[in-house]
Amino acid sequence: MIDGLVRVAGAVRELPTESTQQAVGYPSLFLLVALGALVPIVPTGALVSSAAVVAFHQSSPVALLLVFLVAAFAAFLGDLALYWLGQRGVRSRNGSRWLAALRGRVTPERLAQAQARLDTHPVSVLVLSRLVPAGRIPVMLACLLAEMPLRRFARGDMAACLAWAATYQLIGILGGSLFPEPWQGVVAAVGLTVLISALPALWRRVRPSRTHGASGTSGSEHP
């Protein structure tokens, strides 16, 4: 992780002019975020935060607004495309590779939790699914298995993408305001987003050990 941050620092230490950043940055941000929505291995949160850091140090008054709109719109289109592809698999007897890929990324326990929450608070669950790292795919799969119409999914996902873009942009603004150089803010923002994304995996590793320890203690008290 440290080596990755060092490489990021070296890449952005000497930034191009503002006109070049805008001509290349916004289309690149759109394509990468949309791709990250389809293929959930691209660190889209870090991309948005990094773009927000660069925009924070620009003189254009609308740079941050454009980063927000581009990121939210790209995430929204990517989500809709993935949901549409998943719907084709649900309706087909043979399924599809997209639906199979979604199933392969979700454990039965997490899917059951997403389905239970979706029954009671569908809109809020969709919004939180994008804010919680690794929470989007289980909720999307739950929506697909519940045969939620694309239009209804889009209404909830629009709010989710707006909240997601705003959250990661705020992380970038924080990084940009704390450091005088843009590359320093980018490194800080990337490091923070990587840490946030790693927290669920760390929690899942710690939680079973705690549960096992509690059950062992209970068994010793009640032989």
Automatic annotation (TrEMBL):
Keywords: Cell membrane, Membrane, Transmembrane, Transmembrane helix. It is a multi-pass membrane protein. Its main location: membrane. InterPro entries: DedA-like (IPR032818), VTT_dom (IPR032816). It comes from the Bacteria. The chain crosses the membrane at residues 29-56, 62-85, 158-179, 185-203. Pfam families: VTT_dom. The keyword Transmembrane helix applies. It is found in: Cell membrane. Residues 43-172 form the VTT domain. Belongs to the DedA family. This is VTT domain-containing protein. It comes from Streptomyces narbonensis.
